[in-house]
Design a protein that fits this description.
Elements (H helix, E strand, L loop, with lengths): L14 H4 L2 E2 L5 E3 L6 E6 L5 H8 L10 E3 L5 E3 L5 E3 L13 H4 E6 L13 H18 L6 E3 H4 L13 H6 L19 H11 L6 H12 L10 H15 L5
Parallel strand pairs: 1-5, 3-7, 3-8, 4-7
Antiparallel strand pairs: 2-6, 4-5
Helix pairs in contact: 7-9
């Protein structure tokens, strides 16, 4: 699925077409804020039944709104109007209760602990229409379609450097990686870059972890935890686009 995003393709698609079955989790409560975000995770558990068991176990106290298997089956776990417990201690663009503000989507995947690998085409092709419907229904900005590592850089690395953000961006469902960096790097030192990361939306409590999270999302081919000219140019481009209203 690499054609440009066509919103009309999703018009009229309802849950009967997008969700294959429901396995309700008891792990949810009431939202405190409107939905303004979507957060993508991986399960880091195999087989998928293990992840499903944990996400529906009341003792585990974790959940998500959806789980998508590697074969492309979409399982609803928590109704969207409820607050699922997927993000944990997290922060994004001033929002501290990310669980209240977001829809959480878990991708069935072994993760870094069990043999990190590419995400399956079937899984991605199930994710795209579901996410497109969510983004449309709640008017979620592209900048607020994020990974777990973006909102919890101190603790998380998922969905990781192999998640196909570039393919998702072709559908207009997240911000694309800047292609042209002619504006250069205006940050004179690592401290200035980290402050700019905070302005973009990241939690900078641990600067090195925030840098790694930014790399994992925006320069996944090289994750070093240190600032260089290319990284600075990417962040500067993103900030300029945001300030002129082109990065919604």
């Amino acid at each position: 699925m690499s054609t440009p995003f066509d919103p009309s393709y999703y018009t009229g698609k309802d849950d009967a077409e997008l969700v294959h079955r429901t396995e309700l989790s008891p792990n949810f409560d009431e939202r405190n804020t409107p939905i303004t975000m979507a957060v993508i995770h991986y399960t880091e558990m195999k087989p998928v039944e293990t992840a499903l068991e944990r996400l529906t176990d009341p003792e585990a106290k974790v959940s998500a709104h959806y789980l998508i298997t590697e074969e492309g089956e979409v399982i609803r776990l928590v109704p969207e109007e409820k607050r699922a417990w997927h993000a944990g201690a997290s922060y994004w663009r001033g929002t501290k209760d990310v669980n209240s503000a977001s829809i959480g989507i878990e991708l069935d995947h072994p993760g870094h602990a069990l043999g990190y690998r590419e995400f399956s085409d079937a899984q991605f092709e199930a994710l795209v229409p579901l996410l497109a419907r969510i983004v449309k229904d709640y008017d979620i900005p592209r900048a607020n379609v994020v990974g777990h590592s973006d909102v919890a850089p101190l603790r998380k690395v998922d969905p990781g450097e192999l998640f196909p953000w570039d393919r998702l961006a072709e559908y207009g469902l997240c911000l694309p990686r800047p292609a042209k960096l002619e504006k250069g790097d205006p940050f004179h030192n690592e401290g200035a870059f980290i402050l700019a990361l905070e302005r973009f939306g990241y939690d900078i409590t641990e600067g090195r972890k925030a840098i790694e999270a930014f790399e994992r999302r925006w320069r996944p081919e090289r994750i070093e935890g240190r600032v260089d000219a290319q990284l600075g140019a990417i962040l500067w481009h993103l900030l300029l686009e945001r300030d002129r209203g082109a990065a919604r």
